[in-house]
């Protein structure tokens, strides 16, 4: 449902409020600047990367999309290994795995390989694999009850959706 990225950004605000560093890597989203990105980039302890080209389920170039996901994953691994970052948000990575751009087992194997990791990793996106769900410490499912786009055909609105 709606609100997955927004919920993770709430965790980012908590983390920077406690004086820690946050890295946000967006795997799918890109091509437009959101209000969240504009606001959070003003904080010196947040690093933000939008590495996708938008909604890849509407892709025109699957090979390019897969390459971008692999590049985003490599960057994410660098941040995860950097102990100075307390929170790393991998936004829409579950969509990337669902579309077959990245194997969930690759994520799990990498995280398991790190001994005594002191940071927190948040994976967002619809359709998390069973293996990711079973490996995770915390899993939340957002359930859409009503939305003006679906119910009334209202397009995405500034300040509400982006």
Molecular structure report:
About 40% of the residues lie in helices and about 15% in strands. β1, α2 and β2 form a beta-alpha-beta unit. It is globular and about 50 Å long. The mean pLDDT is about 90.
Q: In angstroms, what separates the terminal alpha carbons?
A: 15 Å
Low-confidence stretches: none
List the strand order in the largest sheet: 2-1-3-4
- Annotation, overall tally of beta strands: 4
Question: Looking at the chains present, what oligomeric state does this protein adopt?
Answer: single chain
Radius of gyration: 16 Å
What spatial form do the alpha-carbon principal axes imply? globular
Q: What is the chain-wise order of helices and strands?
A: HEHEHEHHEHH
Query: How many alpha or pi helices?
Result: 7
| Structural class computed from helices and strand pairing | alpha/beta
Q: What's the average pLDDT? A: 88
**Helicity range:** 40-55%
Q: How much strand content do the residues show?
A: 5-15%
How many strands, which pairing sense, and closed or not: the largest β-sheet? 4 strands, parallel
Provide the descriptors you would attach to this structure in a database record:
alpha/beta; 4 strands; 14% strand; globular
């Amino acid at each position: 449902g709606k609100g997955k990225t927004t919920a993770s950004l709430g965790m980012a605000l908590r983390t920077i409020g406690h004086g820690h560093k946050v890295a946000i890597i967006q795997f799918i989203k890109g091509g437009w600047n959101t209000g969240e990105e504009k606001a959070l980039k003003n904080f010196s302890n947040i690093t933000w990367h939008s590495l996708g080209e938008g909604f890849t389920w509407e892709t025109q170039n699957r090979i390019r999309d897969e390459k971008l996901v692999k590049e985003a994953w490599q960057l994410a691994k660098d941040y995860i290994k950097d102990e100075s970052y307390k929170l790393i948000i991998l936004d829409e990575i579950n969509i990337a795995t669902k579309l077959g751009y990245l194997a969930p087992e690759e994520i799990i194997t990498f995280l398991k390989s790190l001994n005594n990791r002191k940071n927190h990793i948040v994976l967002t996106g619809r359709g998390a694999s069973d293996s990711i769900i079973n490996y995770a410490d915390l899993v939340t499912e957002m359930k859409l009850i009503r939305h003006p786009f679906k119910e009334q055909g209202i397009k995405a609105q500034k300040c509400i959706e982006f």
